[in-house]
Design brief:
Blueprint: E1 5-6, H1 9-13, H2 15-19, H3 32-37, E2 49-53, E3 55-57, E4 64-66, H4 67-79, E5 82-84, H5 87-91, E6 102-109, E7 118-121, E8 124-127, H6 132-142, E9 151-154, H7 165-174, E10 178-181, H8 194-211, E11 219-221, E12 236-239, E13 242-245, E14 248-250, E15 269-270, E16 273-274, H9 289-298, E17 312-315, E18 333-336
Parallel strand pairs: 2-6, 2-16, 3-4, 5-6, 6-9, 9-10, 11-14, 14-15, 17-18
Antiparallel strand pairs: 1-18, 7-8, 12-13
Helix pairs in contact: 4-6
The structure holds zinc ion.
Zinc ion binds next to loops.
Length: 337
Amino acid sequence: MRVARILFALLAASSVALAGCGGARTTGAVDVNKLLEQKIKPNEMGMVMIIEYHRVEDEESDYTRSIENFKKDMATFYEKGYRLIAFHDLLKGRIDVPAGTTPMVFSFDDSTQCQFNYVKKGDKTVIDPNCALGLMQAFYDQHKDFGYTAQFNLLPQMFDQEDYKKKKLDYLQTNGFEFGNHTVSHPSLGRQSDEAVQEEIATMAKDIKSVEPKATVDVLCLPNGSVPKNQALMYDGSFEGYKYHNNWALLVGSNPFYPVWHYRNPGTLVPRIQAMDYDPEDGSGAEGSVYWLRYFDRHPELRFVSDGDPTTICAPSYMEPRLTGDNIPSGVQFVGY
Ligand SMILES: [Zn+2]
C-alpha cells in the first residue's frame, strides 16, 4: 500500500481564500493506511443523499411513508452506515461523521401535524411518539450515533396545532433542526407571475421569522419542484418592502449529488430523493430512497465515505483533479491515497 500523501497543490490554489482566515490550519492528517487496514476506504469525493419525506402515518401511499416503513428506513440507513447531519453542514462542507460512515440529510415537506405533534400525557405536553419527530427521537435514544436532526420545510400552518406553533419552532430551533421556506400557498412557481413568486416567498419568510426570530431562513423548498420562470427570484426578491435571500432551492427529485468541493456539485439548486420503496419488477419507486440504497450497495465506490476528519477531503489520489477550489472550506485539505 502506498504511503498516504498530503497534496498541497490544492492549498496553493486556494491560498487567497485561506489567507483571509489566517492561513491553513494544520490538520490531524488522517492516517489512511490505518483506515485501509480496518477495511475503511474513505471517499469524500463520493455522492450523498438528502431524503425527502412528506406525511408519516399508518398507511403507506403516495406522499405518505407508513410509520412502519419510516422506522425501517432509519434502521436500514443506520445499519448501512448512513448518519444524519444538518442540511447547512452538508451544503457548507462541514462534514463531521465517524470514519467509514456516510452523511445523510432528512428533509420534511409541508409541516403537517403527523410530522410534529404534541399530545397530553397526564399534566404534561409531550411529543407524540407516533409522529415523525417522536419516531426519530425514539430511534435516536437507542442509536445516539445516528444523529437527531432534520430540515422542515414550512407552510403557514406550521404543523397544525396553533397553540403549539411557537413551542414547536422553539423546540426545533434549540435542538439543532433547521427550517426551509415552502411558500404560503404551495403553488407551482413555474406558473406564477414574478410578483406572485415574490409574494409567496417573502410572505412565508416573514411569517417564519415572526414566530422564530432566531431561525435562519435561507432555503427555499420549491412546491412540486417547480422552478419559477425567473430563476433569480428563488434567491432574491421582495414583496411590500420585505426582502428575502435564499442560498439554496430544493427540488423534489430524484438523485444523489456530489459534495460542494466536487466539480459536478449541482450548486444552489439541490436535488433530493423521495423516501419510497422500489419494485425492480415493475419499476415503481425507481429513483426513490430504496432504489438508491440498492444502487450504492452495488456501486460502493460512488458513495461518500468519511475518513472521520472534518478538516480533510480524503479520497483516491486520481480524484484530486475533480476538486473545485472555490467551495473548499478554509483549512480543509485534500489527502489522496
Ligand atoms: Zn410540498
